[in-house]
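User: Second chain of the day. Same drill as before.
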Amino acid sequence: MTRSFFTRLCLLGLALIAAAVGCAGRTTGASDFTQAANGSWTAKLSFVGSCDTSCSFFVRWRLVGTTTWTNGPRHTIPSKVTNASASETASGLFPGAPYEYQACGRESSQNEDFCAGPDGSGGSTQTFVPGPKRVYVANATGSDISQYSTSSTGLLSPLSPAAVDTIGTPAAMAVSPNGLSLYTVNGVPYAVNQYDIGSSGKLTAKNPASVPHDGGAPGIFGVGITPDGRSLVASANGTFLDQFDIGAGGKLSSAVRAPGYPYINRPNGLAVSPNGKSVYVANTSGNNILQYDVGTTGALTAKNPLLVASGGGSLPVDIAVRPDGKAVYVANNSGNIAQFSVDTAGRLSAKSPALVTTPGPCLPSGIAVSPDGSSVYLSCTYNQNGTGTVVGQYDVAEDGRLTAKSPASVKLSGSPASDVAVSADGKSAYVTVTSLDALAQFSVGAGGRLSPKSPATVPTGDGPSGIAVTP
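Assistant: Same format as last time:
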């Protein structure tokens, strides 16, 4: 960070006085991990912020589970700035340990700092694990999970062993916010598998290795974890959602059925809001979205209304939330994306236009938002026979509305494209390609545009479906 840069930048999530002075800010993720000669690591901790008057700010970080913060240097900004981004370097970090950070600041007229995480609130922190990032792929046909390490440029290389066996047919996956646990939703048997992530990135099954849930017919599934790491929600393409407490060592409790029957009809992809207060589920056969409040114990209660039409589209299969929590995007397998605004209670309402056409149009199966909220990516196949596969790419306006980038898509060999994920630093994207038994890997360049890495794909196991990346 240079001094000249900070003459243009102010942080920060001064939410308590935002209405009066127009300040806002949030963290956007850790990247550029570098190992020192003594074995410790450094990380670039990024954030974005705005303010109407002069202000000052700093970044603070700590090991998850500890109480003492390490504060970076304080910087003073003499004038108004809008949506400016910057970063601070944290050093002396232990490899493989979970950390959290916040951006803190105050207006020149204030006496106390306010600290904010990824949703701009004081109740959230941005988590990260120093060291190489890991990527995991659920291989439904092969009943195993491929595991990869990443280079500094996001290129994947298999760990040893390249895959670990799993119980049943794994589909959707999620990594805990502290980066220490991985969970997969199974088709048969209907269960959530649970794994420890070691310091090397290798998976080992927890004890027990899986926890049953109500389930339903095999198909596309969803799984999500609240940002505090205390609750997990799973769908299994039947007529129920299950919710689990996450206890010591990342172990799941017995399943508890979420409300909503008989209105739930093939719940598939799901997403948890960045503030952890809302859960949204793509309700495929119902052609709508289920929306829930998350209580202080993690229990789900139906919002009013519970059901929101999928923007006029049909067959919603996956869902993603913008990192600031103010927009939600739904991949409709009928060939479009539904886009929603989010009110202060977490309720959805259709934007105008309610639907955005997919490239071609194609039939999407997965959707992801970049960590900075500026881009949306879509894994997409041209017809039900699976011929012709692309990754759609969209710009996100300040108000959350989508417009196609130029070009609107990037071609893939093989088909169909099952899932898409973006790395925590926003510099790489990954797409599972079922017919190739491969994972396509892309660099994210200027304007969020994708370009194939070299090599363009890496092998997976049989029938790759879901993807998970570490924070």
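The chain has two domains: 3-128, 134-469.

User: Great, on to the next one.
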